[in-house]
């Protein structure tokens, strides 16, 4: 599972104008998400998107039943996607590099 890395990112960038969030695509199933949060002792914020509204807004489509952490998006302060990739899949170093690039862009 890549959840420990997501948790690590969350802790690393806390209080640095970066917020790490996971969006659940499990419909109305909150219990599974809550179990994962408890089991892994996560502080990452999980958002519920039962209708797929937020997912559709950023991805153009809603894929029920897919892993809630399968896709990763870096969104700037204007609400625009500055980087999108599959996670797991993208090397962790590359993701960290892209986050640092986004932070620099947010400061301009």
Write the layout of secondary structure elements.
Layout: H1 3-13, E1 21-24, H2 30-40, E2 45-48, H3 53-59, E3 71-75, E4 81-86, H4 92-107
What does this entry look like structurally?
With 108 residues, the chain is α+β, with helices and mostly antiparallel strands. It has four helices and four strands. It has helices at 3-13, 30-40, 53-59, 92-107, and strands at residues 21-24, 45-48, 71-75, 81-86. The protein has a two-stranded parallel ribbon. A two-stranded antiparallel ribbon has the order 3-4. Strand 1, helix 2 (30-40) and strand 2 (45-48) form a beta-alpha-beta unit. It is globular and about 35 Å long. The protein starts with a helix and ends with a helix. The model has no long low-confidence stretch (mean pLDDT 79).
